[in-house]
Give the backbone structure.
Amino acid sequence: MGNTFGTLYRLTTFGESHGPAVGGVVDGLPAGVEIDQAFIQHELDRRRPGQSALTTGRREADRVELLSGVFEGRSTGCPIGFLVRNADQHSSDYANVRDTFRPSHADYTYTLKYGLRDHRGGGRSSARETISRVVGGALARLALRPLGVEIRAYTSQVGPLALGGSYLDYDLDRREDNPVRCPDAAMAARMADLIAQAKADGDTLGGRITCVISGCPAGLGEPVADKFHARLAAAMLSINAAKGFEYGDICQHLDRRGSEVNDLFTSRDGRIRTLTNHSGGIQGGITNGEDIYFTVAFKPVATLLREQPTVDTAGRPTVLAMRGRHDPCVLPRAVPIVEAMAAMTVLDMLLLARGGKLF
């Protein structure tokens, strides 16, 4: 239970951080979608560990194997099973947490729920599970590609360093020009220096990722309890270390009146458009055809490479000094995960609106 995402487009994931492999099953992808395996691998490469000095030193190729549901380069409409094998586990790095709880981690709550836990890298609670989400999201993006739906996320804040203005002020195609995945080169350099310093200190940093969905059809969302932004929020908050979700920019204008921030309408070529888009492309829980933009807040990684007071499984006070390879900041690698969850949400809601068919 709890391992499946979606209603008509469904992704079920499996596997642990230090097990033989992680993988998943995608069900509900319509038949006939062109499966660009190079694109799927590219998305995994954006998420994989060891891609820069700012990430964990774990070295994984993260090569995806598609096991079913694809014939002659196209989806068959049947379940797509896939696998990504683990190769560079250092399970001995976690020997000292077998009987100790890492502060602010899932160690304690998993033990409460299941009566046991896989202490090697956090087991199922590890962010390595997000590999499966990236594959599911890449498949969803391939289905959305002919419809002109584009999804672009970027790092907008690391610690106290935050981009000003809106997404319209930046060339989002430049976000892959640096390892932080920030579209502003000067700010990206400052963010990289801050992450490097935190890593040297054995500490971690949080921040925000902003995402923009362009070309999303109007009319997606199911009133009242299944609103588009509610689905989007649930998708984002299911990502490891995600702690906050905000769409549009109304929260930045809570000191202003409605007359100053209401989205006003205009008509161009017979099509109704909004003059402003404070509501982030969603009104009444239903998409209005404008850009959908939102921000996800991520906490600093819980695993620190420095001494911390904690307790063992018997409740006795102790001091924990973690070893191993860990991200000092999840944001650079979380960008493709945010995009993947957004893509799956859009495709699922689109299939719901169209009775399970894209065309």
